[in-house]
Amino acid sequence: MATSRELTISSVMTQTLSTTMADRLRAIVGHNHVITHPDRLVAYESDGLTAYRVVPRAVVLPETTEQVSSVLALLHEEGIEVVPRGAGTGLSGGALPTPDGVIVGTARMNRILSIDQQDRLATVQPGVINARLTEATAPYGLYYAPDPSSQSACTLGGNVAENSGGPHCLKYGVTSRYVTGLTVVLADGEIVRFGGAGTEAVASLDLVGLFIGSEGCFGIATEIEVRLLPAPEGVRTLLGIFDTMQEAGHAVTDIMASGLMPAAVEIVDHATIVAVEASVFAAGYPIDAGAALVIEFDGTEAGLDEDADRAEQCCVAAGAREIRRATSEEERLGLWKGRKKAFGAMGRIAPDLLVQDATVPRTRLPEVLARITEIGEEYDLKIANVFHAGDGNLHPNILFDRQNADELDRVEKASQEIMSLCVSVGGTITGEHGVGVDKRGYMPLVHNEVELEMLRRARWVFDPSGSLNPGKVLP
Amino acid sequence: MTLVDGLRSVLPDVAVRDPSEPDSPAWHGATPEFIASPSSTEDVSRLLVWAAQEGLGVLPVASGSHADPVSNGRFVALDASLLSGIEEYEPADLTITAGAGTRFATVDDALRGNGQWAPFDPPAARGRSMGGLVSEAAHGSLWAGYGALKNHVLGATVVTGDGRVLRLGGKVVKNVAGYDLLRSVVGGRGRLCVLTSVCLRAFPLPPQERVLLMSGTSVAELIESALAVGTAPVLPASIVVAGPLDVLDGRAALVVRLHGAESTVDADQATLETHVGRPFDRVIDVRDGAARILSQLQDLGAAEERCIEISVLPSQLSGLVSCAADVGLGPMVVDSYAGRIRIGGADLGVDPVGTLRAAAEKAGGALRIVRWNGADSPTSTPQSAVTAMLSERLESIFDPGGVLWPARS
């Protein structure tokens, strides 16, 4: 697995782009939209996973599908690697530059091209911010369901590349359920159209589904057609406070077994609560609590109180010492605050944070959480857990200081153990953040060599040259 | 040595039978040399390798069905029915894994015994195998409320044309560890590989199901009401218009299914009736007649000797339904939320279907020939040249020797 130390070395080796090539790119996208100055390139040296940093040769910011096509065709012709990038909020280093590569960013491709109220569809460019689509469709009584925690900053193009989830995908599913069609530019600049609502009867393989989650290795999506849902009429949000994580885990199991279908079920652990309450994001969670459980129901107003009552009963039966129920949108945001601001709050505890992302069968959560605590103790590391409990998607956050080489070494070892643990109970190494560079080394935990070779060949199907986002996903 | 003797010398445990036996499937086009029924993933792998060595093609058949005709050539049929049984079911995890040859009824019964279900209802689903349903990505009317079948398939074990065993996906709901090859297999119709095991996501059974019915003289008369339901601020589990229906004395019906707590479905019904501008004619109790109507809706036309499927945007449905009526095609089932029309009948004509295909394509949609018993079959809307090229590349990495050619013919 590549380490941050190795990547620091590679950043020194970054090549500059020739003036001629920069001028040719500027001729396509406009003078101001090709960045080559070292001071400005530093802003692109990493994505949300800052442990890995490489300064790119250049950044190109096209505005249209045709410009993307021309840019990729030119770079392909010159044999230059391409790293696609959305907002750079990814947490697996999927948009990490390569020393020899050029970033093609979608920041200027930020238009909502159409909203079709009757067919409940929208077509957007890849640089549209996730939350902005829901804002734009709200006047029609519609919304876009996938809601990654970074939805106020992340782009829909990035969501497609990572097959993003979010707290509410427990009920509504992840990005792949909502994308109906794509316009894609392949590595050589060819523009292709996959799928499209209304064309499902065409007897073809599901190339839309295969493209989603391909982490920028198959092409750049330049137009994304998505399905919208009617905005739920009402919402009920509860916060359960528990003395122990085990009690909170039992409450989740009971809620799911009772036949209820919450929109979201999220847990933050004691370490996270302490971090949040000590920060500017303090949400009023009791700092002696073992775990806080956020449960949300949405849908038709008439049935929501009944659902919330049943969930509350499950929490009480599992040992909740306190239940809070939001009675206004302001209170709802307050209950969510401790969950949504958890990552931000951890910044004050340690200079660096490794956000892990693994999924396990829900019934294995209690034993996995207990073992993660032991791993933290064994390696003398602080690990705070925030997770989507309803679907078993864990985010163990390892706090560390990258300047401390010994600690960095222990972080890598603990991380490896956590991943092995999750796989050993039937889980996987990433539920929603993607593999990127961060989890390439863990891929053999979930795929044997035959399967890894198939993934390499799948990449070849779309990009025989291998020039799109090299060094990602595959070990 | 005969082919069968050759196979038995390599795979003595694989059951083999003659394709002309009475309980064999109806073969469209060419007939296989024999039907082989392996009972393990390993034997499927060995069978594919053996077939390649013998220069034979392999046609996967699940629950004895394969609707597409096979062009001439020597091939064996790989019957998955012995890859049967529930392999793993953990109700608290809401996941179930079963052999590809397992009848959906077996899975459905196991789930319902624990207050759960797999919410998809393609035609004749209970009698079909898991592998067949997944391979076809069969469409059902519960798409509106629960999404497509492909969203419920969490993982699968498959064998590539050259005998490699791949475990795709997993048994957790969220999983992005590598490219999602599973998506190309779901709906791949056996073109890429042979499914041997499937893991599905289960859901809690809804506390209440309410079936609302509005009847009319024809599908065309009801389609606007169906579209109105589809743009209401609540999302039903399914919205289907179908007709003529035997159970309604030849009339057509708009049938809407609502799932949720009793107070929820009460409120949803009121919202829909306000939105549509009229009350539903009947509310049918599931225990009292609704099952019969739902069953006919689910299966209408699907088992006919000729069957077609159309997809368009919902906003284009009225025009397509009118066109179908104008050229005399029916009976039909319309999933108005998904924009899907199924028409089946022994007397579907080539020219009317051609007219309908042109109308569908003009409206931005497509038409697919699901089954056509007869020599003069009309053609389906083709995929684009570039998706065909990419699909061929995918086929080449899954099946480099082209052993699965009968599924692609």
Describe this protein's structure.
The complex is a heterodimer of chains A (475) and B (409). Chain A is of the alpha+beta class and 475 residues long. Among the domains of chain A are: 4-105, 2-Layer Sandwich (Uridine Diphospho-n-acetylenolpyruvylglucosamine Reductase, domain 2), CATH 3.30.43.10; 112-230, Uridine Diphospho-n-acetylenolpyruvylglucosamine Reductase, domain 3 (2-Layer Sandwich); 234-344, Alpha-Beta Plaits, CATH 3.30.70.2190. Helices cover 36% and strands 20% of the residues of chain A. Chain A contains 17 helices and 19 strands. In chain A, helix 2 (19-29) packs antiparallel against helix 4 and helix 9 (245-257) crosses helix 11 (301-318). Chain A is globular. In chain A, 58% of the residues are buried. Chain B is α+β, with helices and mostly antiparallel strands. Chain B has 4 domains: 3-80, Uridine Diphospho-n-acetylenolpyruvylglucosamine Reductase, domain 2 (2-Layer Sandwich), CATH 3.30.43.10; 86-204, Uridine Diphospho-n-acetylenolpyruvylglucosamine Reductase, domain 3; 209-299, Alpha-Beta Plaits (2-Layer Sandwich); 306-372, Alpha-Beta Plaits. Chain B is built from 13 helices and 19 strands. Helices cover 32% and strands 25% of the residues of chain B. Chain B has an 8-stranded antiparallel beta sheet. Chain B has a 5-stranded antiparallel beta sheet with strand order 5-6-10-8-9. The two termini of chain B are 29 Å apart.
